[in-house]
Every structure is written in structure tokens, then in C-alpha cells.
Amino acid sequence: MSLDPARPRTVAPPERRLLRVAERREAGAYAVLVAPDPDGPAPDPGQFYMLAAAERWGGDEGRPHLPRACSVLRAQDGALQFLLEAVGPGTDRLCALGAGDGLWVLGPLGAGFVRPREGRRALLCGGGVGVAPLAIWQDELLGAELPAPALLGFRDAAHAAGAELLANARVTTDDGSRGHRGIVTELLEEALDADGHAEVYACGPPAMLEAVRALCAKREVPAQLALESGMACGFGACFGCVVPVREGGYLRVCVDGPVVEGGRLASVPAH
User: 149 with 25, same domain?
Assistant: First the structure.
């Protein structure tokens, strides 16, 4: 089985919607925004939204920022949840939103995760804010058994608080301030040594995803990678998020992904 780029997906309404933030809470170094979306469809795990603040969405020069692509963390009780980290002007503004503030959303966009192949068990692997789509996917997979195991890597203890958004997690930090000291692919290698009948679901920075892709390719373990990319539109018009594929040509992360089978890629390129 391979992931068909045209696989079924939840289709977004054609226009952006103005939501109101109902809650903002902190998760260590991250912010979680909760915004009811009564008129929008429920997203598939792994899909994303283009986000913009309704007010003061621009720099000092008066030009607006581009919307920011953000994976959905959860969709519960008719409300969307987003996990954000302030790393620049746009995300700074989004992280500053509070209850009652307006939030423009366009989505859900892209194609999400699909269930493991027969005979394989889901194994989640995430880094930083990339844990977001793994949380909603873990919820979707939850059945009579334990939640799918999650291997999560972070910079330090403040960022590792994001691991509390998932269950059944093992944590690694760069500085050893929480969990295993090292990188998350060390935990992944250990887990695949113990049980090679896994299907890996991963999201995180490009270097982490490339390490996951290479490790899974070497062991012939299927991997579904939720790619991160800067985007201008989110629906395939600008070709600003293209990634080369092994068979030649390119895919657009926003419409052919963001979830892509690792075997389609010769490598995961840096932003």
C-alpha cells in the first residue's frame, strides 16, 4: 500500500472564516489556542489550517503578514485547537491572542494520515511543535488497547511540557533536562529494534524527519511523514512549498501532503 496523493480528504470551504478565540492556555514554551468553528467541517488528523490574526496582522511598515500554516492539535466539541510557538512576528502575534480575539482560519487543508497497513502497529515520533498532528491522530487511533506509543523530542524541559498533550509518551531533550538526553531518533531506533512491525507516523523539523525517513528506509519500515513548509496560499496556487520526489518531479506539500509516504522522498529538504 502507498499513500495516494488523491486519497479522500475533508475539503475546506472556499473562503476563510472569522472565529473567536475561546481560550488560550500555556503548555510550557508553547501556547494552545481554542476556537469554536461551528460552520467548519471536522478535520482529518494531519490536515492543517492557514491562520491569521483578525487585528494588527502586520509589521511596523503596515504590510500584512502572510497567513501561517498550522497543523490542528485537536478538534473537540466543535472547537479547533492549535499548538503554537512564538518564533517570529507572525507566530508572536498569534501566540498573543486571547479569549475574544478574532482568528481568521482557512481549512482544513491537505491530506492527512491513513491507518497502519495490515499487521503493523502505529508508532508516533515527533519533535517540537510537530507533536500537534500526532495528538489528534493518537485520539483517532485510540481503541480498546493502550494509546499508540509516542516518542517525542524537545529542546529542553520548558518545551518538553508539550509532551503532556499526548499519552503513552517517552521524552528526549537536547540538554537532558527531562527524559532521555539525546535526539528522538535514538528512541525510535531502540523501539524498532524491539518491534519491527511498526508503521511510523512523524512530524517535526526537517532534520528530524530526514533522520526518521532514512532510518525507516534502511529497515524497510513504512513511514508517513507530515512535512513542514512555509506556505503563502495553502491550496496549491503559489508553488512555494514544492518538494522533489524520488521518481522525478515535485509534490506540493499543501495539496499532495502534508502527509507523504517516506518512500516517495529521496530526502527531506530543509526549509
Answer: no
The per-residue pLDDT for 229 is: 82
Domain count, the chain: 2
Distance CA 179, CA 256 (A): 35
Assess whether 77 and 171 both reside in one domain.
no
Q: Counting every residue, how long is the chain?
A: 271
Q: Position 100: which residue type?
A: G
Considering the chain, what percentage of its residues have pLDDT values greater than 90? 77
Sequential DSSP letters for 79-130: EEEEEE---SHHHHHHHT--TT-EEEEEEEESB---PPPTT-EEEEEEEGGG
Is the alpha carbon torsion for 257, 263, 265, 267 positive or negative? positive
Low-confidence ranges of the chain (pLDDT < 70): 1-2, 4-6, 59-63, 143-145, 271
Query: Could you say which of 84, 109, 134 is where a domain stops?
Result: 109
Residue 79 is assigned to a structural domain of this protein: yes
Pairwise CA distance, residues 48 & 68, whole Å: 10
Task: Locate 22 and state its grid cell.
Answer: 475561546
Q: Answer for the pair 220, 261: CB distance below 8 angstroms, yes or no.
A: no
Look at residue 269 and tell me if it is in a domain: no
Range of the domain at 72: 17-109
Tens digits of residue pLDDT in 191-214? 999 988 999 999 999 999 999 999
Residue 178 placed within a domain: yes
Quick check: is 70 in a domain?
A: yes
Q: How far is it, in rounded angstroms, from Cα 224 to Cα 5?
A: 12
